[in-house]
Amino acid sequence: MIRVLQGNLNRCILAQHFLRQRILEGKVDICINSEEHSNFHYGLLFANETGTVALWIANTKNVTAINSGSGAGFVWIQTPTAYFMSVYLSPNEGISVFRQKLATIEDAIVKFNGGVIVAGDFNAKSAEWGAAFSDTKGNEVADAAARLDLIVLNTENTTTFRRSGYQESILDITLATPGIANTIESWTVSEEYSGSDHQYVTFSVGLVPGSAPQCTLYKRKWNASKLDLDALRTYGAYQLSRETPIQAPARRRKK
User: Which residues contact 159 (CB under 8 A, 6 or more apart)?
Assistant: First the structure.
């Protein structure tokens, strides 16, 4: 199992300290973070250029990164179990910028070859993940999730954003492709104090049937010693004759 913690640190150093302590106590393998205070971590960290999102592999013995990438508002890694993507879409940006960033995120996910977990603070409200109502941004995210065949993992109506003087809401969501979603256990909004105005979200991911626990990549190669040149020439000539059929000469028109 891979133990995952999802959170928004609100650029707060106190929240960053609490996160480090939480990881040590909870034996977290990977953190899906947004709005970090700094990029000072042990383990292995992947972040986008602006530092608004990060994926922190705290336990490199249990999680191995094969590949990675990032863009405006997102960062992703590929592991032997699944692709993990961290997302943060600012509430201060208009709907046109929001749509542009969401489209870029969607384009990145389409290219993934395997199960996907997308998590973060989308600053979007939708009844799909337990909000009292759906706003325009929430509808945009829900439509993108439907196109990508992503399942909403938020199973409770527990709020994730709690700031004094503001209405509580569900802004932090977790999405996954069906195969990965079937392996996820104990998705929960933690009531533990985080030092931020967002609550932690925790869950565990099991191995997908057929996936390898270790990162082992095999490259296919030709064995030249077993190559039958005569058979290869015969097959090539046959394919060529199929692709370029002989055309009959054109008939002369009578004057």
Answer: 168, 169, 170, 189, 199
**Rounded CA separation 43/48 (Å):** 17
Q: What is the pTM of this model?
A: 0.78
Confidence of residue 48 (pLDDT cuts 50, 70, 90): confident
Question: What is residue 11's DSSP assignment?
Answer: T
Is there a contact between 46 and 77 (Cβ–Cβ < 8 Å)?
yes
**Token pair 């489209």 is at which residue?**
103
Please spell the DSSP secondary structure of 159-202, one letter per residue. -SB--TTS--B--EEEEE-HHHHTTEEEEEE--S--SSSB--EE
Distance separating alpha carbons of residues 69 and 77, to the nearest angstrom: 7
The chain-wide mean pLDDT, for the chain, equals 81
**Is-contact 95 137, C-beta < 8 A?**
yes
Q: What is the DSSP letter of 225?
A: G
How far apart CA 18 and CA 249 sit, in angstroms, is 83
Q: Which of 34-38, 155-159, 232-236, 249-253 has the lowest mean pLDDT?
A: 249-253
Q: For residues 63 and 49, is the Cβ–Cβ distance under 8 A?
A: no
The neighbour count for residue 213, using CB atoms within 10 Å, is 10
Q: How far is the C-alpha of 15 from the C-alpha of 31, rounded, in Å?
A: 13
Distance CA 85, CA 77 (A): 7
- Tokens 């569900």 correspond to 170
Residue 90 scores a pLDDT above 80: yes
Q: Domain spanning 2-205 has what CATH number?
A: 3.60.10.10
Whole-Å CA distances, 14 to 18, 19, 46, 228: 6, 9, 21, 68
